[in-house]
Structure formats: structure tokens, C-alpha cells
Amino acid sequence: MKKIFLLVSLLLMMFFVGCAASPMESQIYIDEDISFSYEEGEFLDISDKDIINGILDHDKDRVIMLEYAVDKGKIESVSSNVIHLLDIISAIEFESEYSFKYITEQSSSSFNDLAENYYDSLDKLSIDDIIAFNDLKQLLLELNTIRINKINYLEYRLNKEMTQSEIIDLDILQDYYLVLINNFYSYDLSNVDSSQFISDLMDMGYLISEEKKASIENAFAIYYFLK
């Protein structure tokens, strides 16, 4: 019985040592869904440890997610006037402390007042802008919240279908990013390049194969293209 106990203990020790020598099992995957709130104008449930978090772009995301709603049959279409209006709203957000939600909840006249105070443009709001504002408010009410797979989101951002190899490369980057962020407690992916990233892993004792290095470099290329 004592021999069995010692054998089990030895096996457990080997298991934990093996875990320490390879990336931790990731709780975050590229092939999973995230939620977008049309009311808030942003994604809601993305972890700070998710590499996607570093490439979000509110201006682009709002347009993409309206296009996604059209593609999914949630709404019929989105006019170019509404797309232009999103730029105006973003400008007001930038110049003021008001959120997307607050701005889009305003009446037409109140929105016009916000634009006059915070929209730095030679052109005043047109009738088409006011109509587009009301159209957008209606769309936001209809859509509420929708889920999209992160791969689909990336494909909209990249304007192309991703290859399986690219998806695997991003998953590898995500796995190793979790290792670094859990070790350093704070690790800014946007402030390092692939060489520094790999060097930081190797300083921790990780042996990174040439194949893994190539995957990390490819994933960084996608990350920085979208950033």
C-alpha cells in the first residue's frame, strides 16, 4: 500500500512539473463567442487577458456590428447616412465626457445641441443627419445585444476569411500571453514585439521551438495590423 502511495505521489509530481514547463491550459480561446451591446456601442464580456481586447476599435466595431446584423438578417440594411452619423457621435464622445449610450438616448434637438458644442466641423448637422440619428436610435432598440464568434469578428476586421493556420497561430499567442500576464500580473502586449515576447517567455524557462516562434511572429503580424 505504501508503495502504491509513493508511486501515485511521484506521478503527481511529474504531472505538475510537466505543467510548469509548458503553457498553462488556456481558459480563453479564439474560437469562442463575445457579446456586443448596440445600446452601449461596445463589446461587453471580453477579459483583460484576451488578446482581442487590445485590438478593439469602437468606431470600426460599431460599423462592423451593424453590417453583421444585416448579414444575420436582424435588420434589412444600414444607410450611408447612419454610418456617417457614427463618425459624428464618435467625435462628440471624444470631445466630451458623454458615452455612446447617453448620446443616442437624447432627443433630436438635444443631440443637435451636443453637436453644436462638441462636433468640431465647419458643417452643421443636416436634415439627413437628424433623420439618420432617429434611424440609428430605432436600430439600436431593435438589436439590443448580439453574440459573434471572435473568428468572425476578426474576419470582418481583416476583410477576409482567416486560414486555419492563422487561427492556430492566434491561439498559440493567446496561450503564451496568459502565461506572461499571470506571471507578471500586468503585461502590455501592445508595447512589445514578437522578439521581446519570445525572449520574455524564454527568460521564464520556456523552450520555444522554431515552429512556435514562427506562429507567434505570424500572430503578432495580425495583431499589429489590426491594432
Question: TL;DR?
Answer:
With 227 residues, the protein is mostly helical.
Structure description:
This protein is mainly α. The protein folds into two domains: 34-148, no CATH class; 163-227, no CATH class. 61% of the residues lie in helices and 5% in strands. It contains ten helices and three strands, in the order αββαααααβαααα. α3 (80-95) packs across α6 and α8 (164-184) crosses α10 (210-226).
Topology:
Blueprint: H1 2-20, E1 33-37, E2 42-43, H2 58-71, H3 80-95, H4 100-104, H5 108-118, H6 127-143, E3 145-149, H7 150-158, H8 164-184, H9 194-203, H10 210-226
Antiparallel strand pairs: 1-2, 1-3
Helix pairs in contact: 2-3, 3-5, 3-6, 8-10
Biggest β-sheet: strands ordered side by side in the sheet: 2-1-3
Helix content: 55-70%
Q: List the domain count as a whole number.
A: 2
Poorly predicted regions: 1-26
Q: Tally of extended strands?
A: 3
Structural category: mainly alpha
Report, as a whole number of angstroms, the end-to-end distance: 58 Å
H/E topology pattern: HEEHHHHHEHHHH
The whole-number mean of residue pLDDT values reads 89
How much of the sequence lies in strands comes to: 5-15%
Using only CA atoms, what is the Rg? Answer: 23 Å
Specify the biggest β-sheet.
3 strands, antiparallel
Output the number of helix runs: 10
Q: Sum up the overall morphology in one term.
A: elongated
